[in-house]
Amino acid sequence: MEQGQTISGSQAVIEVLAAHGVDTVFGYPGGAIMPIYDAIYGSSVQHLLCRHEQGAAFAAVGYARASGKVGVCFATSGPGATNLVTGLADAMMDSVPVVAITGQVSTKVIGTDAFQEMDVLGMSLSCTKHSFMVTSREELIPTLYRAFEIAASGRPGPVLVDIPKDIQVGQLEYKTPLQAVATEAAVDSAAIAAANELIRQAKQPMLYAGGGVGMAGAVTELRDFIARTGMPSVCTLKALGAVEPSTAGYLGMLGMHGNQAANHAVQECDLLVVVGARFDDRVTGKLNTFAPHAKVVHLDIDAAEQGKLRQPQVALTGELQQLLPQLGEALNIAPWQQHVAQLAEQYAWNYDRPGELIYAPRMLNQLAHKLPQDSVVSCDVGQHQMWVAQHMWFRKPEDHLSSAGFGTMGFGLPAAIGAQISRPDAKVVAVSGDGSFMMNVQELTTIKRRKLPVKILLIDNQRLGMVKQWQQLFFEERYSETNLSDNPDFVTLASAFDIPGRTITQSAEVEGALDEMLNAPGAYLLHVRIDETFNVWPLVPPGAANSDMIEDLEA
Amino acid sequence: MIHHLALTLEQRPEVLERVLRVVRHRGFRICTMNMTEQDDKFLQLHMAVDSDRAVELLSRQLDKLLDVTQCVVTTPSAMSQTVSA
């Protein structure tokens, strides 16, 4: 569009999206956003109708996480905007770049309790990185540009722009703002030297990689650092895929449901190099017992993470792509490397399970080996999510979508939809549980609408499994509201959305059924019945140290 | 422990709510507060806050707010043993 042309505010919204390379928006129309829906009608920007605004927000999150691009969602005022909140909070906790655009009642009736009015700006304060309510036509285009910049820069996050209806219909001059060029902050060479000295002195160093590595596009720099130093490594849930799984000294995920080897190595280490991670309680267990002998070098883009939960000896705040190449050299730590290798062997997963019942960890490991190079696994939340993290492996962080910080049930299906839109050639598999699946089950219609080839692996133990596991272990087997044996017939349910599928119950059926699912031309639902007594092991009990993991009591 | 903070804020209708929300959520209680208009673009906010937590846990979160252009702690730090870049 030419500069200086007179257009409506709504047209300006679509122009700004197009200028930012947004090919698809996820949303749901309603009264106060109708002018924007009128402007997108027939425009170059595609829109995918989700069947609940929470689904639209998670689709935008999945779109962003699978591609690294900014995800965009639309919702109307009032209930439309309030339904976005869970998705925005999820994006906030996992630092996902999303721009949410909400319609608002007209400026002159704001504050009069108008129909479908809600103080969306006030509501957004705790669940966004930043938010705006546009108060004049002249502000509209600069505000939208700023929203995209804020969402993607620094530590990424969700940004909400609330646009009153009169500003959507008002005429304005199309003029793109001048964009500031980001200046690279200089890194303090004394701090780099101090970090290198600690790395050089360490006899038992460990690398603890977090989701920031992938968000910063620093996977290559991280892998180079590991190759250069030979430092053993562990990943958080969000970092899975950042370290190549066959890397020497890589021990997988640490924390509450981490691998025992990963937790023991971290507990024993004398130096922890923390890269883009934040000492989450699910990672550390009892905080003051976490890596008790370790000095800490903490690299993060966000200064507020330095010393928030663990005081580092050296804090390096800045771009990981810039910091990592300045750290590390070939280390002389052979005895430690051997010890770590021995731990890895000692605590390697064992998939031998007698009996005919389907063992979900083994099935997921089989699935990982069957997935093609270009694939995305989108998880829901609960036992299956931990099994995916433990027993699958990923080529890069963008291939594993999991609601890590917020732990939102209902994430998996709509996030898979977003991932399939941003990576149309990828094999996208939503791995869900019978509890989570029902939380955004309406999005099956969205799959049908766009004929998306999303595969759904539904692991069904007829229980709200993770809560049931805790009731069994820590609440005297008092199973309060976790029995879901009145679930619908999932294959019949899927068929109502033109999605074929089948149910399997026996171990011998797994191989063929996974192939059938992956080879299906369109969407497919594989319903897997597992025994409700299977739990997630090992486990750090709440309030315990990571060295006090407990193993399967029945095995 | 009481800490004193001096903030420069951009003039936005919601900026005070943003700051107060972070103060509460991060575990601090406001003892005294004084806000003045510097000009039509900026506000000056002085706060005394009380908490058992280190004041950096608050000041760094406030610094991250895009409408906070400056946040200075005028009381001594408990987190000074770290080498920082």
From TrEMBL, chain A:
Alphabetically list the UniProt keywords. Amino-acid biosynthesis, Branched-chain amino acid biosynthesis, Magnesium, Metal-binding, Thiamine pyrophosphate, Transferase
Task: Recite the UniProt cofactor note for this protein.
Answer: Binds 1 thiamine pyrophosphate per subunit.
Cite the EC number.
2.2.1.6
Q: Which GO terms describe its molecular function?
A: acetolactate synthase activity
UniProt domain Thiamine pyrophosphate enzyme TPP-binding: residue ranges: 380-528
Q: Which cofactor does it need?
A: thiamine diphosphate; Mg(2+)
Q: What residue stretches are annotated with the Thiamine pyrophosphate enzyme N-terminal TPP-binding domain?
A: 8-122
The record lists the catalysed reaction(s) as: 2 pyruvate + H(+) = (2S)-2-acetolactate + CO2
Q: Its family? A: Belongs to the TPP enzyme family.
- What this protein is called in its record is Acetolactate synthase
- State the organism named in the record: Shewanella electrica
Phylogenetic classification of the source organism: Bacteria, Pseudomonadati, Pseudomonadota, Gammaproteobacteria, Alteromonadales
From TrEMBL, chain B:
Query: Keyword Transferase, does the record have it?
Result: yes
Q: What class of enzyme is it?
A: transferase
Provide the E.C. number(s) assigned to this enzyme: 2.2.1.6
Q: Name one Pfam family in it.
A: ACT_5
Among InterPro entries, the record links this protein to: ACT-like_dom_sf
- Keywords from the UniProt entry: Transferase
Lineage: superkingdom: Bacteria
Any one Gene Ontology molecular-function term assigned to this protein's record: acetolactate synthase activity
UniProt keyword annotation of Transferase present:
yes
Q: Which NCBIfam families match?
A: PRK11152.1
Q: What is this protein called?
A: Acetolactate synthase 2 small subunit
UniProt gene name:
ilvM
